[in-house]
Amino acid sequence: MGWLKEKLQQEVLDSIDLTTEISDNDLLCVIDDILVVKSKENYISMQEKRRLRRDIFNSIRKLDLLQDMIDDPSITEIMVNGRKDIFIEKDGMITRADKCFESEEKLEDVVQQIVSQSNRIVNASSPIVDARLPDGSRVNIVLPPVALDGPVITIRRFPENPITIEELVEYKSISLEVAKFLEKLVIARYNIFISGGTGSGKTTFLNVLSNYIPNSERIITIEDSAELQLRGISNLVRMEVRNGNTEGSNQISIRDLIKTSLRMRPDRIIVGEVRDEAAIDMLQALNTGHDGSLSTGHANSPKDMLSRLEALVLMGADIPLMAVRKQIASAIDIIVHLGRLRDKSRKVLEVSEVLDIENQEITLNPLYRFVEKSEEKGKIVGQLEKVGNLIYTEKLDRAGIKI
């Protein structure tokens, strides 16, 4: 029935004035009128009519065949590897979708539609871009000549209602004891860094921790592509980087946003993810009185996260390594490390306190660590066990909070 959809879609486009704005309802009325005429010429079942109506509307006004996947709340990731290969992640399992784009041109149209919504530019001379959909889903796009088999689109979907700490406890991603412990640390304004691999749930966990921030505080969020869904904070300023234009000028980077945020009287600064030399500006922000700030980064362990931060800082500043380590040890109080286990479950694997420099290395004090007990029906059974006590309790004492 692909030929019929293409034929009807072209008739719809021929029937509307493309130079004027047409509402969604008016477009649906045009599609309905043409379907009525066509169903008299050729029998089309009611089920097929509904499908054609939806597909034609999505192709003209939405993101074509991707729209049904985006509207499906059970799909968490959509991966388009060129025109023919589309994969989806559902319940932690990746499967091939039974759909493909009718042409390379249609896929390229969808790409341009996505980036235009985020005021971004992607083309052969600038073939890589991060964007987001109106519902907050994160999108990464890579075009030829970098992508050899056609445009690649990766869409990470986030739930409409952010996951709560109660749900994470119910999913056994974190224990109630550790959740209560982290709540006290957030309220007491400890600087917390969330580390983990791709897809380990860093952004979700950052949203969860932000729910502990008192409503009376002024919060500034800084992101490469806005994903955070902070709720319950009235004095909230959200900022997003701006890519350069086709000449590469007028770019606003995370470094620029961190610098300007310091003049906006923030109580806390939340940086969505640190992945470049902006790390030096984030550390300086944490060291200049903005306690209680949060951020995330990619790493395999808390120790690896410290090493990666060192490397990122040195990318943007020519300063001695020991000075960098002192900055990191002074700025970050707690590292929460997340992971995705072999059964596809996401869990808090370690909570560590960042101590001072000892033998020219930053010392970590592990507080909780996930211990695997067994495996039942393909599911890993284990729990977070306490392995140490918090040493630096001054912020808790100042906040009048007891562990």
Commentary on this structure:
By secondary structure, the chain is α/β, with parallel strands linked by helices. It folds into 3 domains: 1-61; 63-157, Beta-Lactamase (2-Layer Sandwich), CATH 3.30.450; 165-399, P-loop containing nucleotide triphosphate hydrolases (Rossmann fold). It is built from 13 helices and 15 strands. It has helices at 2-15, 24-41, 46-61, 66-71, 104-117, 165-170, 176-187, 202-210, 254-261, 279-286, 302-316, 321-331, 394-399; strands at residues 75-81, 85-90, 93-96, 128-132, 138-142, 152-156, 192-196, 219-223, 236-240, 268-271, 294-298, 334-340, 346-358, 361-376, 379-386. A 9-stranded mixed sheet has the order 9-8-10-11-7-12-13-14-15, with helices on both faces. Helix 10 links the parallel strand 10 (268-271) and strand 11 (294-298). Helix 1 packs across helix 2, helix 2 (24-41) packs across helix 3 (46-61) and helix 10 (279-286) packs across helix 12. It is elongated, with a radius of gyration of 25 Å.
